[in-house]
Amino acid sequence: MMMEMDQHGVMVWMLVPVLAIVLAAVFIGYQLRPASEAAIARLQPGNRFRTGAEAADRPASTEPEDLLIVIPDISGYTRFMSLSKLGLAHAHYVIAELLSAILEAGSETFRPMRLEGDAVVFHGRMSTLHPQDVGKGLIEIMQAFDSRRRSLVRENACPCAACTQIGALDLKIIVHHGEVLRFRMGGMEDMSGEAIITAHRLLKNGAGQPRYILVTESTKPFVAFPNDLSHRTITETLDSAGVISATVFDLPDTRPDEPGDRAPGTALTAKARDLVRKIRIAV
């Protein structure tokens, strides 16, 4: 009898650390609002960013305007989203986090128009934008993407097919300008015109790499980067616009897995939070 009681006592004491871990996970899960939920909430149509020079609400135009069009597009998105059906929720979480970083940074200079899966469409009035501000704004978008991607890689605690390939994602930005008509339909704002069509078609080009800022020749005088960047000229033939000449600016690749930029304890806490978030997402 005493042996049975001892065995039961040992089993109870063995369960204590397990219960502690479970309770801690539940506590963290309910105390922390998952970053994915916050990011997705910020991407809802009604939650516009209003911090930039072009972010104030204005009625849609009744005649064409000369607008700068900026389209940051996540490279590798299609393959990333198809890596694993089990990892689809995590892939969506990662993309939402990256798009949120792009929106926050880009909205300081440009006005966000809409989301397009793996891309954000920004615009700005040519009459109000200074070349130095445009160049600085484009660099800030790229830096914000790099920073968020790096933290997602560093904090990742999930071995699924999507989470282990976060570092393979990158960003390209298309910059063009021209006459565009802005309009509203069903409570949403959109724009039409040859310039926006050309900008979208330039997402498929011969740049030959997943990371760059492409500025069309007609737009180049309106973009001044804070530092000299390596660049090259390419030409694209489009059905709607004919031959388009553009400059591709190559930016140094900030690796997403920089070691040693966090204390071990802080890194462990971040990984634990990441795991709790992703468990909640998948459930």
| Number of continuous helical runs | 7
SSE pattern = HHEHHEEHEEHEEEH
State Rg.
23 Å
Q: Please bin the fraction of helical residues.
A: 40-55%
Low-confidence stretches: 1-5, 10-36, 43-57
Q: CATH homologous superfamily name?
A: Nucleotide cyclase, GGDEF domain
CATH architectural name: 2-Layer Sandwich
Q: Into which percentage range does the β-strand content fall?
A: 15-25%
Domain unit count? 1
Task: Please describe what this structure looks like.
There is one protein chain. The chain is an alpha+beta fold. It has one domain (48-263): Nucleotide cyclase, GGDEF domain (Alpha-Beta Plaits), CATH 3.30.70. The protein contains 7 helices and 8 strands, in the order H-H-E-H-H-E-E-H-E-E-H-E-E-E-H. Strands 1, 2, 3, 4, 5, 6, 7 and 8 form an 8-stranded mixed β-sheet that branches. A hairpin with a 2-residue loop joins strand 4 and strand 5 (188-192). Helix 1 crosses helix 7. It is globular and about 50 Å long. The two termini are 43 Å apart. The model is unreliable at 1-5, 10-36 and 43-57 (pLDDT under 50).
What does the secondary structure layout of this molecule look like, with pairings?
Elements: H1 2-31, H2 35-42, E1 65-75, H3 77-81, H4 88-106, E2 111-115, E3 120-125, H5 131-155, E4 170-185, E5 188-192, H6 194-201, E6 212-216, E7 230-238, E8 242-250, H7 264-282
Parallel strand pairs: 4-6
Antiparallel strand pairs: 1-3, 1-4, 2-3, 4-5, 6-8, 7-8
Helix pairs in contact: 1-7, 2-4, 4-5
